[in-house]
Amino acid sequence: MIPIKSSEITPESVYHDRRKFMKGVGLAALGGLAVAACAPAVAQPTAAPAAATTGGTIAPAAPAASGAMTDELGDPVNTFEEITNFNNFYEFTTDKEKVAGMATDFPTRPWTVEIGGLVNNPAIFSIEDILSRFDQEERIYRLRCVEGWSMVIPWLGFQLSTLLELVEPKSNAKYVRFETLLDPEVMPGQRSNWFDWPYVEGLRIDEAMNPLALIATGLYGKDLLPQNGAPLRLVTPWKYGFKSIKSIVKIDLVEEQPTSLWMAAAPREYGFYANVNPEVQHPRWSQRTERRIGETKRRETLPFNGYGDEVAYLYEGMNLAAYY
Ligand SMILES: Nc1nc2c(c(=O)[nH]1)N[C@H]1C(S)=C(S)[C@@H](COP(=O)(O)O)O[C@H]1N2
Ligand SMILES: [Mo]
Fold first, then answer.
1. Could you tell me the fold of the domain covering 6-322?
2. I need a labelling partner for 36 at 20 to 30 A (CA). Which of 15, 68, 228, 258 fits?
3. Quick one: which ligand is closest to 96's CA?
């Protein structure tokens, strides 16, 4: 992970520009699919907020002057070009601008995901099963990488909670453990011993059940491309981007807290919770600001990446500084 240069940091408050956070906004229903397939310039403001939020008022989407797609704070979505050509996917390369080219031929069909561990109904789903069983909806989320950059991405996907409810976690299941495909033949980065492959990530079960936690299968109304974690990846927008594990083949309900690839690789630098927190600095750089891809000025990083109203309750009583 590349540290940001301190020269790039412009400590300038963006809070006063921002619209008040509105629950549910930016969570467009399936109806948004056709809209999302269009270029942002012709898309309409987000319609029909999803019913399932943590409660509270569902406000209408903030109309953007240009009619462009925006998140609930009014920030425009990044372009398809940006989202699909600037990637972290170490199974291919650590060069963000080369992932797309190297992943072009990554085979995402056939694909199965196995869901097991401490569940009553273990299952193996093909990607076709997943796409036909779970209604896909559009969700516009900010993605904040621990390295200090961010994007706004119009994902297509479904709530992780619906998948977990289907397999029925047992009462002793405390965590969800996710695993990426292990295949050094097609993922050349896995031939390097720098990391303990496969990529693993985890969530506490209540985090996984939170309505914001999404399994993404597409973006901009299209199937995910390999560089973004095709055919299915996790998205937890209140956490640093490394939690949103790509190209998942296995999901296990477990009793013990899983050790992620990053925790194993650099335990002093990457923790299990990894909630976006401007107050807690990475050992090698500050997390106070971030650079939105496509912009030059840095903006202030928001606690929980701006999703505190939805998720802060999960961490009540915890010393967040200790859970980087
Ligand atoms: N399997 C796997 N998942 C991964 C990564 C990775 O290297 N391998 N990188 C993570 C990091 S650090 C980030 S910031 C996001 C980037 O997602 P994007 O390329 O779709 O923007 O993916 C995350 N998921
Ligand atoms: Mo990241």
1. Sulfite Oxidase; Chain A, domain 2 (3.90.420)
2. 15
3. 1
